[in-house]
Specification:
Layout: H1 4-9, H2 17-25, E1 29-33, E2 38-40, E3 48-54, E4 57-62, E5 68-74, H3 84-87, E6 93-96, E7 100-106, H4 107-116, H5 118-144, H6 147-164, E8 168-169, E9 172-174, H7 179-186, H8 190-202, E10 206-209, E11 212-215, H9 218-225
Antiparallel strand pairs: 1-7, 2-6, 3-7, 4-5, 4-6, 8-9, 9-11, 10-11
Helix pairs in contact: 4-5, 6-8, 6-9, 7-8
Keywords: DNA-binding, Transcription, Transcription regulation
GO molecular function: DNA binding
Pfam family, one: HTH_Crp_2
Length: 235
Amino acid sequence: MMTRLFLQAHRTPTLTPEEVAALEQAIARTTEFAARRTIVRPNEPLSQCTLLLDGFIQRYKDTPDGRRQILAIHVPGDFVDLHSYPLRQLEHHVAAITPVQVALFPHSAIRVLTMESATLTELLWRSTMIDAAINREWIVSIGARPAAVRLAHLFCEMYLRLERVGMVEGMRYALPLTQIDLADATGLTAVHANRMLRQLREQGLVEFRQGSVEIFDWPGLKRFAEFDPSYLYLD
């Protein structure tokens, strides 16, 4: 079932078997993208939404002087551009981090789903609002949190999001980013990010190495990050 991880990540509202079938039938096709391949470019007309089935995707913007700000990291089960349905275009890039597989939902099919099922409308709307809540938390990190806390907060968030879809092993999970990616996601330079990663490791909290995160002290990491998971709406 192509929507299994999406429904695993978003467990409310509960769908009937008929609604699950309708969601599945709205998929036009699946496709794959190579690592670092651009999936959506800014301001191009869009007629479909993308559900991530496998791999990791980023949303980002470039500045005129060549800097990049990562706006979101998407994991399997995420709709990466559901907001393109009403907007018909995006103002930022969507790109694969790793090789990815995605399912494509035509906007016309999304329209039918929302016209025929109030529950599906609520589910898709809730998914988009959680994306917005995560985005607000990232803004708080970049604007108000110290550098090491930003990284710790991100590691806490990604652990819970990946645990939700069964992609953690104990306190270890794959996060296939470079240190430059981490810096671009947290508003740091690569050099500063490297120093902060060393600090977190030396404090016995967490280690990021070669695209893998291992949490040594989950309660301590949460305290250090002042992490409150309520913005993820996991209940």
